[in-house]
Design goal:
homodimer, alpha/beta, Rossmann fold, 7-stranded parallel beta sheet, 9 helices, elongated, oxidoreductase (chains A, B), D-isomer_DH_CS (chains A, B), oxidoreductase activity, acting on the CH-OH group of donors, NAD or NADP as acceptor (chains A, B), NAD(P)-bd_dom_sf (chains A, B), D-isomer_DH_NAD-bd (chains A, B)
């Protein structure tokens, strides 16, 4: 069965190719039964595109909290018939595991080797390097990113505490359910946040959790800024309650110029660049092709968003 | 057979323990048949310690070019009898492979992810990240460091060109003899220098070799500063003939304040800190214990320095 897919509102050539590679028809919106969405990311834009015959929407990011917060996954479209189940939504979650894990490893190694500090130096100094090897790493939210990170850490003989409700984290030393994530903090040299942004994860790292960490431990966030209470983080860094923070995501984001985090010696900020643009397009195109094939075959789609969990 | 070892001129407790752990006797210099040297690293200091009954000297570093250049390994001690073979010298080479390889990986990932640039930023910017995964990595001088680096690169699916005359580089895509190292340069995204400093390797990266590299490739030096012609490197960086340089070692070293390399956007300098101090002491103590045992058993020592090759 061929599926009629609209790619839009931006007609991105790489995504049109990805649909066609799977044998899908690329059609105008009014004739579509599926949407590969790429646009402003304003939930209202997508909502206005949904019509009764749309059975599936592919979103272009791993994190979909902006659509979840706007109720796109739960509220029936105002124009839909009573009792309509609405379309299935899929995210790109899982397709960016390896590139984002690579960034997390880069940040951990930079922290261990003091690269944040040395990059700013203008003269020679003492050897204050630490080894990543042998460290204890807590991975909070251990999905596709976390699993890829565990593979990358294998040569370093780290003790790895994976926090996930899926129960599956091959290679982890210990697996904890999310409700017990605080138990992973006191022993960790590195706390890597890789959990989805949902109402339940918002602010899961505040003063209390930062206070449980070691004073030489680094917080590494490659998930979403809102999982960390920024004011509490600034306070913990100022007071020396943790060793440092490497943040690919911030709250607010972009982090405004002049924010105290920009000034701190033990902070390294990257501008939501954990997923390099070429890896982003490759991962998204692969996900689109795989899901068009699965839709045609009636197979379960990859990255289906739970309307109750929001990821 | 128990070996009588002098630890000095600095009586370092960790090294005394390492000798005793292997069953060796720690004795004053005049009664010693072996020296575990730790001191100023001035070759004259060691030369003054050598006497007729010294059969083995353990040096405290992986690179031993300062003693080689001073002729310590080749010239007979002025006081020794004619025809005396002189002691066997061993280096710590190979005992620091993993920690130094970890530093090389940290530098490569920093280059890929732009951490040298982002650490200096004081405001948000665009995503200019690259992936390390899938890159081509040339490892010039593939001994203990290079072999450890190949293991660490395994999850990244890199094409690895190992330059070594040993012929053994498990996991490398291609192995080239040192005489052909220039052939590895045109394809490499990262050129990692991990060769010993000898008269043959001095200046092996000058204008010609830098000119063979890609304009987006990074030079990563975790070996010795003298393997790179600093003036040529500065010129190549200024002219955009290579992408950047991550240098743990420099020539001169320490790199003086005000040197042009400190000012460059695409340069990351670490202060000869590839081997963290705890790893240094652990590796050296392990090497001392292993070699005292081997000496007692009449087995071949680890890290024997060739008087002709100087490493």
């Amino acid at each position: 069965m061929t599926v009629a897919v609209h790619v839009g509102p931006e007609p991105v050539p790489a995504l049109i190719d990805a649909v066609r590679r799977a044998g899908g028809d690329v059609v105008p919106l009014e004739r579509a039964e599926a949407i590969v969405y790429y646009g402003s990311d304003d939930p209202a834009e997508l909502r206005a595109m949904l019509h009764d015959r749309i059975r599936w929407v592919q979103l272009p990011h791993a994190g979909v909290e902006r659509w979840a917060d706007a109720g796109v996954f739960t509220a029936a479209d105002p124009g839909s018939a009573p009792g309509s189940a609405g379309p299935v939504f899929t995210a790109a979650a899982g397709s960016y595991g390896a590139p984002v894990a690579e960034h997390a490893l880069a940040l951990m190694l930079a922290a261990a080797r003091g690269l944040h500090r040395l990059a700013r130096a203008t003269e020679w100094g003492p050897n204050r390097s630490r080894e990543l090897a042998g460290s204890t790493v807590a991975i909070v939210g251990c999905g596709g990113i976390g699993r890829a990170l565990i593979r990358m850490l294998e040569p370093f003989g780290c003790t790895i505490v994976a926090v996930t409700d899926s129960g599956a984290a091959p290679g982890a030393t210990t697996v904890l359910p999310r409700a017990r994530y605080r138990d992973a903090l006191p022993e960790a040299d590195y706390v890597v946040i890789a959990a989805p942004a949902t109402p339940e994860t918002r602010g899961m790292f505040g003063a209390k959790e930062l206070g449980l960490m070691r004073t030489d431990a680094w917080l590494v966030n490659v998930a979403r800024g809102g999982l960390v209470v920024t004011g509490d983080l600034v306070e913990a860094l100022r007071a020396g309650r943790i060793g440092g923070a490497a943040l690919d995501v911030t709250d607010p984001e972009p982090l405004p110029a002049g924010h105290p985090l920009w000034q701190m010696d033990n902070v390294l900020i990257t501008p939501h660049s954990a997923n390099p643009r070429p890896a982003y397009w490759r991962g998204l195109a692969e996900r689109v092709t795989a899901n068009v094939r699965r839709f045609e075959e009636g197979a379960p789609l990859e990255g289906v968003i739970s309307s109750t969990q929001g990821f």
